[in-house]
Amino acid sequence: MTNIREIARLAGVSTATVSRVINDHPYVNAEKRRKVLEIIRQLDYVPNSSATSLKKGMTRIVGVVSASYTTSSTPFIQAFNIIAQQHGFNVMLFLTDNDCEKERIALEMLRSKQLDALVCLHRANEWPIIESYAKYGPIVTWQRLVSEHIPSVFMDQYQGYMLSLEHLYARGYRRILNVYSSRGLNTPQRIRAYDDFAKKYTLDDIGFPDLHHMMSIADGEHIARWWIEQSQKPEAIACSNDDVAAGLLTEFKRVGVSIPGDVAIIGFDNNDLARLLDLTTVHYPSDKQAENAFAILLDRLGQKAPPLHALEFELIERRST
Amino acid sequence: MTNIREIARLAGVSTATVSRVINDHPYVNAEKRRKVLEIIRQLDYVPNSSATSLKKGMTRIVGVVSASYTTSSTPFIQAFNIIAQQHGFNVMLFLTDNDCEKERIALEMLRSKQLDALVCLHRANEWPIIESYAKYGPIVTWQRLVSEHIPSVFMDQYQGYMLSLEHLYARGYRRILNVYSSRGLNTPQRIRAYDDFAKKYTLDDIGFPDLHHMMSIADGEHIARWWIEQSQKPEAIACSNDDVAAGLLTEFKRVGVSIPGDVAIIGFDNNDLARLLDLTTVHYPSDKQAENAFAILLDRLGQKAPPLHALEFELIERRST
DNA sequence: CCCCTTTTTTTAAGCGGTTTCAAAAAAATG
DNA sequence: CATTTTTTTGAAACCGCTTAAAAAAAGGGG
């Protein structure tokens, strides 16, 4: 086995010097440094990461716990990967399918120091269980959680949804259909936003059904077909996310319904699809949330962390409203 | 820090004894074992995994490299997780989005012994690059690869697709539409299968278009709408996978086309959707492939491995043909 | 009771790195 | 040239665990 001792022997120096070269420490003679690097290259040597982790007390691996790899979680995970990479951390992804056991694996790896920290996009176990692991290493969540041990990069969607509704109002739409998803705590906030909105402008309750659990393109297509059959049609549809909006838009175009002439559509998230289809939407800064999550973890690990971003929703006006 | 020395001290034994208790070795006095376990429980102690890995020369983590988390890769990944778990291995998932750099991370972790082994469902880097990492630890692939260093659990889909076609023929269908995906090397084999099939039964070339890159439910829906517009309609549609078949089926039902009365549909994979929708399909044993992949890795790691499954396609007759 | 075998326990040597500390060498200063 | 400061190096102590080997204790037969 080729280890640091072997390199030291061949380069005619001590292991300390080799270690210094590897870790880019100062105070190494230029010639010796060259020689050591040469031997390392020749022998195709890499330090054993278990040994490094043991000695340094860190693995430089951060776990990301997500129920699955969906349109909504992907941007967060991608951004998290990038920022972690930039700081020399690797990311270990745990797709739990909402299975407590699978989630537990990640938590246990934090406990046994295989992971330095954890970010939970979703969770399967009860909060107290997750909190009980916070003593083993920093944990950050994406969902709302009031806990002194576990910080969160959660954003209250009330404000974001209100942005969406106000935009529709400003454009002159009054008969608005709300399309909700079922993502944990977001829906209640959106409902509250609509109630406040309706009260503010004294809008009558038109009796449109509240659509729930709408999350996919296919759901959007269904709603489009439903819309066509109605005699009392909504003038605008405020969607739970861009996928639903995309499904609506493409299905409407397919059957010749004009957007925004016949009906306006507004999405939520501002994902690739929304950009592609020219959908008006509300930008949900999940990339900034991911960077904040990482910064918080880094800080709790006692490392110098970049400053936190301010998290704000932003209305992206395009051609669908 | 609570380490094994601390436990040993409190239990009044040596670290060797504690280690034996932890690893369930024989030759430990029952009373001392009890005492040690008691202290471990009290202090909420877990062995440091870096130390264990360093000493044992294994991390018991296996990497799974996949482009993303899709309907086709999920069953494999799930099955792989389960079998790995059963053998005391953890799985580290790498979703590469076909990015060479991201894939490289996994390979480098194998090199630095952070991973014991790797299974590649997809790959972004060229084969020679991947092969060059085989010397650092066992690698198995899901795709075809002829290499002495990298074994594969690849299955030639010629036979599976032929099964599908023969079934349609036996049911009396002659005007068959082929729907292909673009998954690497599978499509050529399927085309070859259809050519041989057409030759065997001297079927005329009817001039249906060859549909390529069809992989999703939405693709299936498109094809259904295309079918409706044709004057010369296919009697049966042989799909690249169950998702496409599902899209076809549901879209057809929506507009009142009778299945299999007006047109027969056969899928491929036998996933949850196919079961749910009562689709005739060809079972693609990706769970068995995953178990084989793990067995091969285990064997190459010098551990006792379970025997390999024979891999066979199987026609699953349901109500869509 | 002695000798031999079997069971139990401890000591100590690693696994492969990093880092402290002290010493040696080189450079700067007066 | 002696003294001080700075740069460069290596020896050795760890990080936390496992395990081979040695030692101690217990059991068994004659």
Gist?
By secondary structure, chain A is an alpha/beta fold. Helix content of chain A is 45%, strand content 11%. At the A-B interface, α4, α5, β2 and α6 of A face α4, α5, β2 and α6 of B.
Describe what this molecule looks like in 3D.
The structure is a homodimer of 321-residue chains. Chain A has 321 residues and is an alpha/beta fold. Helices cover 45% and strands 11% of the residues of chain A. In chain A, α1 crosses α3, α8 packs parallel to α9 and α10 packs across α11. The longest helix of chain A is centred in the middle third of the chain and has 15 residues. The first copy, chain A, starts with a helix and ends in a 5-residue tail after the last strand. The interface between A and B is medium-sized, with 32 and 32 residues. The structure holds a DNA duplex (30 and 30 nucleotides).
